[in-house]
Amino acid sequence: MSHGPLMLDLAGTSLSPLEREMLQHPAAGGVILFGRNYESPRQIAELIGQIHQARRPSLLVAVDQEGGRVQRFREGFTRLPPPAWLGVRYAAQPRQGKRDAELIGWLMAAELRAVGVDFSFAPVLDIDRGISEVIGDRALHASPQVVADFGCAWMRGVHQAGMAAVGKHFPGHGGVSEDSHLALPVDRREVELLLEQDLLPFRRLIDNGLEAIMPAHVVYERAAPELAGFSRFWLAEVLRGQLGFQGVIFSDDLSMNAAHEAGSYGERAALALEAGCDMILVCNDPQGAAEVLQSLEAYSDPVSQMRLIRMHGRRSYRRDQLHLEPKWAEALALVAEFEGNPSLDLNFS
């Protein structure tokens, strides 16, 4: 059985019989984990083992472990600095900043691989324009060049730990104030500005081997009338065509309010896949996920299935031996600096 196109979520810390049945559906392809699924490193490793054993090839397991306020696994994991804290350090000392980025990328990925997570939905490649509350300190910096340089270094560390990277939110969420979880953001900037500035980090990471991208639930009205994740202009013409991206395209969560205008869950799923997404996410709505599974029961895309294989973790760590890794002490020393000075000069309104 190959990877299906749907990534769904779970209600708690163990698999229910209904969830196990849903994971065995041919349209299922992965699971995204949240804080509600986590109790301890041992528990989450057991849960991920059950997910991986549910079928062959094993389902992909992902999590949002960006650092800062978006870190689903906390107790028993290292508290990761927010990207903006690292961006300030990088701008002040680029050479050391690249090493910082590599260390934090490795640390994040190594701890997740030690419990079986295949990948994290990171890094955030949005530009900090000082107006997006939902992005805020999740963005590295206001300079596209700094974001690109840091992102490439961070991705090197992730790759060293045997994990794929997912750049988000293409083509850039930093130019709107609305939170797409709650409303429909509309970016009214000229397309040329987006292509020149916001796409720079995506272009650089693609050129350096970025495996996956997640588009934004944002309408860029001067380019196309639909959300970027439902737009053939952004996904086929720009991302695949102009940028030459050959990796996986994940939709953002189809249960977010910004996606509601696209219709029912089945209609949203069809639109996202037709636009060019390889895998779609439905979170926090089991009935919606069941609707998508039913609507995609006969769906098959061999090209997407080949792309998705690259998202499996490529190296395993023993959690009790992570401290023996050469980068471990250096990475923890960097985290200790954050703990001692967590604010720096972030200048967030």
Q: Which geometry do the CA atoms define?
A: globular
Chain-averaged pLDDT: 92
Extract low-pLDDT stretches: none
Number of domains: 1
Protein name: Beta-hexosaminidase
Main location: cytoplasm
Subcellular location: Cytoplasm
Enzyme class: hydrolase
Question: Care to describe what's here?
Answer:
It is found in: Cytoplasm. Keywords: Cell cycle, Cell division, Cell shape, Cell wall biogenesis/degradation, Cytoplasm, Glycosidase, Hydrolase, Peptidoglycan synthesis. The record marks 179 as: Important for catalytic activity. The protein is globular and about 50 Å long. The strands form three sheets. An eight-stranded parallel β-sheet has the order 6-3-2-1-12-11-9-7. The protein has a two-stranded antiparallel ribbon with strand order 4-5. A two-stranded parallel ribbon has the order 8-10. The chain contains twelve helices and twelve strands. It has helices spanning 17-23, 41-53, 83-92, 94-113, 144-160, 191-198, 200-207, 232-242, 265-275, 286-295, 302-309, 328-340; strands at 6-8, 28-33, 60-63, 65-67, 70-71, 119-120, 166-170, 186-187, 212-215, 219-220, 248-253, 279-282. The protein has a single domain, classed as Glycoside hydrolase, family 3, N-terminal domain (TIM Barrel), CATH 3.20.20.300. It is of the alpha/beta class. Helix content is 39%, strand content 12%.
